[in-house]
Amino acid sequence: MRILGIDPGIHGGLAVVEINNGAAPQIVDTIDIPTVGVKAKERVDVLAVCKWIETHRPDHAAIERAQAMPKQGASSGFKYGRAVGAIEAAIACSGIPMTIVEPSRWKKAHHLRGGDKEGARQRALQLFPTAHALLARKMDHGRAEAALIALTINGGAT
Known about the structure:
Structural class: alpha/beta
Strand order of the largest sheet: 3-2-1-6-7
Helix content: 25-40%
CATH architecture: 2-Layer Sandwich
Order of helices and strands: EEEEEHEHEHHH
Shape: globular
CATH topology: Nucleotidyltransferase, domain 5
Number of helices: 5
CATH class: Alpha Beta
Distance between the termini: 15 Å
Strand content: 15-25%
Radius of gyration: 15 Å
């Protein structure tokens, strides 16, 4: 089964994880959320998201529930909400069933706390050692979180 994991937002990530009974899960591919525009006009490139999803043909999608962040301004909150909506629309238009995952659920499954972005990347590297090239940079935490979110659909962390 192929699961699309999504760390939503302009600077989030997408990951497709292959889960087969009895075998260790494997990352098929992962990317940063594709965007167009710059600064205040930056937005999700919905067509690029749809094409990437079509290329990998996942069976199900898991997206982290979007929520307002403390001390987040109205403008950045609106930009984040637009990005999440665009990603959810791309998934819906692709005809893939989607599950919304609470942040606390997937983080608890992987023994992570709060906003520990580097901890999530390190955990993903432990679970997916052959995907090191896809998660090599510190800024790949969105990709790593997407992969960990995908594992949540299969009943929790391995």
